[in-house]
Write a structure and sequence with these properties.
alpha/beta, two-stranded parallel ribbon, 9 helices, 11 strands, 17% strand, binds 2-acetamido-2-deoxy-beta-D-glucopyranose, binds zinc ion, signal, Conidiation-specific protein 13
C-alpha cells in the first residue's frame, strides 16, 4: 500500500482540484458550437496543396491502423491503406480507411491538406471508419499521434479540433500537454468564457476548440460573431503566442515528422481488441455541424 503523509495527500488533492476547478466557465461565446460560425470561412479561405495518392497492395497496414480499425469493428481484410504525398512535404502521410468508411480518401486528403503543413506534422496516421453521424478521437501518447474519424466528419472544424489535441500534446516538444500547463490555465482563469459548451467539458477540449478559433483568426485576422467579444482573449493570446508562428501559419515545408508505425499483416480476429496503452482523447462529439464539400 502506498503510504503517503496526510499533508502530502491533501496537497496532491488540492493541486488536482485547482486544475479542474477552472471549468466550467460561466459564459459561452458560441452557443451553437463552432461549425456554424467557422466552417464556411475555412472552406472559402483555405486550399489543400496538390497531392498524390498511392494505394497499397492489400494485406499489409501500419500497426497503428490495424489497432484502431480492429477496435472500430472494421472486419479483417477491409483495411485500405494509402500514401498521401502533398506538394509541400516529400514524406507521405500514411492514411488508412475501413473500406466502408464514410469519408473517401479524397475527402481525407482534402480536409487534412487544408491545414498548415506544420500543424499537419503533429499527426502520424490519419484513420477513417464507418460511424453514425460523426465522432472523432485523437491518440496522444508520446509513441502515438494518430487521429481517427468515425463517420461522416466532413467539416474542417472537426479536423482542426482533433489535430488540436495533437498540437496540445506535442506542440512544445516536451511531451507535456499545453492545455494543462499554468500558461493555459492562468489564461483561462483570466477569461470570462469558453469557446462553446464542448470546451467547458475539459481543459484539453477547450484548447482544441481554441485551436479552431485561432486558425480562423490567423486566416482572417479577426474573430467572427462573438456573443461576448474579447471574453476568451487571454486563451487566444496564450495559444497564439505558443503556436501561431510554429504551427498555425501557412507556407513552408515539413521539417519534423513522426515516423510511421511498422508495417504488419492487416489481419485480425473479429472483435479482438489489441490496443497499446496510448492515451485516447475522445470520442469528441460535435453538434450543429455544417457540412463542407463532398467529393
Ligand atoms: C509508401 O511510403 C513509404 C514511406 O515513404 C514507402 O516506403 C513505401 O514504399 C510507399 N508505398 C507505396 C505503395 O508507394
Ligand atoms: C489577464 O488579463 C489582463 C487584462 O485583461 C491582461 O493584461 C493579462 O495579460 C492577462 N493575463 C493572462 C495570463 O492572460
Ligand atoms: Zn476533443
Amino acid at each position: 500500500m502506498l503510504n503517503l503523509p496526510n499533508t502530502l495527500v491533501l496537497a496532491l488533492l488540492a493541486a488536482a482540484g485547482s486544475v479542474y476547478a477552472q471549468l466550467p466557465r460561466p459564459l459561452i461565446n458560441y452557443p451553437l458550437g463552432l461549425s456554424p460560425v467557422f466552417d464556411e470561412g475555412f472552406f472559402a479561405g483555405t486550399a489543400a496543396p496538390s497531392a498524390t495518392i498511392v494505394q497499397w497492395a492489400p494485406g499489409k497496414a501500419p500497426q497503428a491502423c490495424v489497432n484502431e480499425l480492429a477496435w472500430n469493428n472494421c472486419l479483417s481484410g477491409r483495411a485500405v491503406v494509402y500514401n498521401v504525398t502533398y506538394a509541400d512535404c516529400p514524406t507521405p502521410w500514411i492514411m488508412c480507411r475501413c473500406d466502408n468508411a464514410d469519408l473517401s480518401i479524397y475527402q481525407m486528403t482534402n480536409f487534412f491538406g487544408r491545414m498548415p503543413v506544420h500543424l499537419r506534422s503533429t499527426v502520424r496516421h490519419v484513420i477513417a471508419t464507418h460511424g453514425e453521424g460523426c465522432s472523432a478521437y485523437a491518440i496522444t501518447g508520446p509513441d502515438d499521434g494518430d487521429i481517427v474519424m468515425q463517420g461522416n466528419c466532413n467539416t474542417q472544424s472537426i479536423w482542426l479540433h482533433e489535430t488540436g489535441h495533437q498540437l496540445d500534446a506535442r506542440g512544445l516538444g516536451t511531451g507535456v500537454g499545453f492545455s494543462t500547463s499554468p500558461t493555459f490555465i492562468n489564461a483561462l482563469w483570466n477569461d470570462t468564457c469558453v469557446a462553446d459548451d464542448y470546451g467547458n467539458t475539459a481543459l484539453w477540449e477547450e484548447f482544441a476548440q481554441m485551436t479552431v478559433v485561432s486558425q480562423s483568426h490567423v486566416i482572417y485576422g479577426y474573430i467572427q460573431q462573438q456573443q461576448y467579444p474579447g471574453c476568451f482573449d487571454s486563451q487566444l493570446n496564450a495559444l497564439e503566442t505558443a503556436f501561431k508562428t510554429s504551427h498555425l501559419t501557412y507556407g513552408g515545408t515539413c521539417h519534423t515528422r513522426i515516423p510511421a508505425t511498422p508495417t504488419v499483416n492487416a489481419v485480425w480476429k473479429r472483435g479482438r481488441i489489441d490496443r497499446r496503452g496510448g492515451k485516447r482523447i475522445g470520442p469528441c462529439k460535435f453538434d450543429h455541424l455544417v457540412a463542407g464539400h463532398k467529393h
